[in-house]
Amino acid sequence: MKAKNSLNPALVVESALRIVDEQGLEALTVRKVADEFGVTPMALYWHFSNKEALLDAVGDLVVSTVREPDPKLPLEDYLREAMGALVEAMRSHPGATPLLLTRMLTNQVGRDITEATLDKLMSAGCDAQKAASIAHYALMISMSLVSGQPGADVTVKPAEREEAVAAKLAILQSLPDDRYPRLRAAAPSFVDCADAAGYYGDAIDIFVNGVMVDLRALARS
Amino acid sequence: MKAKNSLNPALVVESALRIVDEQGLEALTVRKVADEFGVTPMALYWHFSNKEALLDAVGDLVVSTVREPDPKLPLEDYLREAMGALVEAMRSHPGATPLLLTRMLTNQVGRDITEATLDKLMSAGCDAQKAASIAHYALMISMSLVSGQPGADVTVKPAEREEAVAAKLAILQSLPDDRYPRLRAAAPSFVDCADAAGYYGDAIDIFVNGVMVDLRALARS
DNA sequence: ACCTGAACACCGTTCAAGT
DNA sequence: ACCTGAACACCGTTCAAGT
C-alpha cells in the first residue's frame, strides 16, 4: 500500500519545525508529524531513535541558519554580531528557541561560533572559565530575549496571542493607581513589544557594554 | 473510607514543589501529587481548576520566598539586590524557575518588587518603555542564569546529573585540538559550574554595569 | 462541600510481524 | 531496509455519582 522510502528524514525535520512554528513546541508530537506523511507514528522511529533525537535535529536545522560573524571582527563587534545573528535566527522560529541551548556545543555551526567567541575573549585576557561564562551568558540572554519577548510568549499558541495580550493588559490596568503607578504606566510595554528592534538592540548593548567594562577592569588589575 | 477535608490546598502546593525539587518540573503530574495524599487525581480538581492553576500556586509559593530589597537603595544597588534575591530564591527550587515569569506581574511580592524597580528606573530618567524593558531583562537574565547553570540542567533529573555531566565533557574533550582549542580548554566550565557564586555575581555585575552605562548615555543626551 | 469511578482523548515507546 | 499493528504505561480532564 505505502511506498517504501517515503520518509525522507530531512523532510520530516522540516515538517516538525513547521509544526513548532505554527503551534508551538509543546504541540509537537510524534503522531502529528507522522500524520503529515500519512504514516504510522512508529515509522519515524526507524529514522530517529526517539523524540529527543527528532528535536535535536530540529535544533540543528535552526542553528544551521545562523549567520556566522566575521571572525576577524574585534571582540566588541563580534559579540554584537554573534548575539544579533542568534536572535535573528531564533526569531524566525521562536518556538524552537529552547532547542538551541545544547546545539551550540554539539552542532558544527554552533561550535564554530562558540570557538570564535571564546578565542576573542581569551585573547582579550579572560581565562578559560571567564570566557566560558561570558559566552554562556551571551547565549542564554539571546535565548531568553526571544523566548520572553513580550507579546510573543512561547507557551501560548500563535493563534491565541491577541486575546492573551489583551487579557494581561486588562489585569494590569485594573491595579490600584496609588500603589502601582509605575507598573500601570509600563503595562503596555510588559504585555506587548512595540519596538522589537529596540527591545533586542538595547539588551545586546547593555550586555556588551557590561562585558567591556568588566574586561577593562580585568586589564587594570 | 477517606476522611473529608483531607486535602489542604497549601499542603498540596508544598507537595507539588517538593516533587519539582526532587524530580524536575516535567515530572510533576497531577496523579503523582494525588498519590502523595492517597487520593484520586480528580480530588485535586476541587481545589485547583486545572494543572496550570496548581503550577501558578507553586510559582507563588516560590516568589513568596524572595527577599524584598530595601526600596530606599539607590538604583544600582537595588538592581543588584533584586537580581540577587531572585536568583537566591530560584536556586532553592531550580525546577520551578520557569514558573516565576508570569508571577512577577501577578503575584503580590512580585508586583511590589517590579514596581520598585520601575520606580527607580523612571526616577533615573527612563521612560515607561525603557524601564519595562530593563526590568524585564533583569528578570529574564536571572531566570536563565538559574535554568541554564552549567551542571544543573533543569531538563535533567537531579539523580542523573553526574553521568550527564561526565558524558558531555567526554564529547567536548574528544574534539580535534587544532580546530577547537579554546572550546576544549573551556569545556569543564561549560559542563559544570565550579564557582557558582562567581557565575551569578559576574553576570549580575555585567548587566548592572551595562545598564548604568546606558543610563549615563541617556542623561547626556 | 468534597471526593470517587469510569471513561475519553491523548501521549511516547516496545515489540513482533509484515513486505 | 523500512514500515505496520497491537499493545503498554502513562498523561490531563469530563462528567455523573456517591457521601
List the helices and strands and how they pair.
The structure is a homodimer of 221-residue chains.
Chain A: H1 9-23, H2 30-36, H3 44-47, H4 51-63, H5 75-91, H6 100-106, H7 108-123, H8 128-147, H9 161-173, H10 181-191, H11 196-220
Chain A binds a DNA duplex (19 and 19 nucleotides) through helix 3.
Brief summary:
Chain A is 67% helix and 0% strand. By secondary structure, chain A is mainly α.
Q: Share of helix among residues of chain A?
A: 55-70%
Total number of strands of chain A: 0
Give the tally of structural domains of chain A. 3
Largest interface, Cβ cutoff 8 Å: A-B, 55 and 55 residues
Helix count of chain A equals 11
CATH topology of the largest domain in chain A: Tetracycline Repressor, domain 2
Q: What is the CATH class designation of the largest domain in chain A?
A: Mainly Alpha
Major β-sheet annotation of chain A? none
Judging by the overall fold, what is the CATH architecture of the largest domain in chain A?
A: Orthogonal Bundle
Q: Work out the strand percent of chain A.
A: under 5%
Please give a structural write-up:
The structure is a homodimer of 221-residue chains. With 221 residues, chain A is mainly α. Chain A folds into three domains: 4-62, Arc Repressor Mutant, subunit A, CATH 1.10.10.60; 64-149 and 193-220, Tetracycline Repressor, domain 2, CATH 1.10.357; 158-191, no CATH class. The first copy, chain A, has eleven helices and no strands. Chain A has helices spanning 9-23, 30-36, 44-47, 51-63, 75-91, 100-106, 108-123, 128-147, 161-173, 181-191, 196-220. In chain A, helix 1 (9-23) crosses helix 4 and helix 6 crosses helix 7. The longest helix of chain A has 25 residues, at 196-220. The first copy, chain A, is flat. The first copy, chain A, starts with 8 loop residues before the first helix and ends with a helix. The model of chain A has no long low-confidence stretch (mean pLDDT 95). At the A-B interface, helix 6, helix 7, helix 8, helix 9 and helix 10 of A face helix 6, helix 7, helix 8, helix 9 and helix 10 of B. The first copy, chain A, binds a DNA duplex (19 and 19 nucleotides) through residues 1-2, 4-7, 29-31, 39-43, 45-47, 50-51. Chains A, B: Keywords: DNA-binding, Transcription, Transcription regulation. Chains A, B: InterPro entries: Homeodomain-like_sf, HTH-type_TetR-like_transc_reg, HTH_TetR, Tet_transcr_reg_TetR-rel_C_sf. Chains A, B: GO terms for molecular function: DNA-binding transcription factor activity; transcription cis-regulatory region binding.
